[in-house]
Amino acid sequence: MYDLEELTTGLQKANIRTHIETSGAYQLTGKWNWITLSPKKFKAPIDAIFKQAHELKIIVFNKSDIEWAEAHAANVKSTCALYLQPEWEKRDQMQPLILDFIRKNTKWRISVQTHKYLGVD
Asked: Per-residue pLDDT for 121 more than 80?
């Protein structure tokens, strides 16, 4: 949504790494060392972001989100790290489901919403 080219170029010239987490719904500008794509169901990511992503992170609210995650994983590079993250309010139900899935699909990893455990929203 914003032109981040000048900011990220300046940061990188100062030897500061640039990382971003994005839903991918808008054209990404800037120079990035690491891009996390965390798509949302209400606004699909643009096609170009899939090949730029270093990491794909899907929030799992229900069982069908795992199939949705697999559909998105088919669009990223083979080197892209794949993460499933239980939605905070449903973590007790979704975490066992995710663990079972990743045991059978080892390209995926589990992550947690650390900011929620820390009370930082």
From this structure: no
Quick one: three-class SS letters along 44-59? Answer: CCCHHHHHHCCEEEEE
Count of domains for the chain: 1
CATH for 98: 3.20.20.70
| pTM for this model (two decimals) | 0.92
DSSP string, 93-121: HHHHHHHHHHHH-TTEEE---HHHHHT--
pLDDT, tens digit (0-9, with 9 covering 90-100), for 61-94: 999 999 999 999 999 999 999 999 999 999 999 9
List Cα–Cα distances, 107 to 12, 19, 43, 116, in angstroms: 31, 22, 26, 25
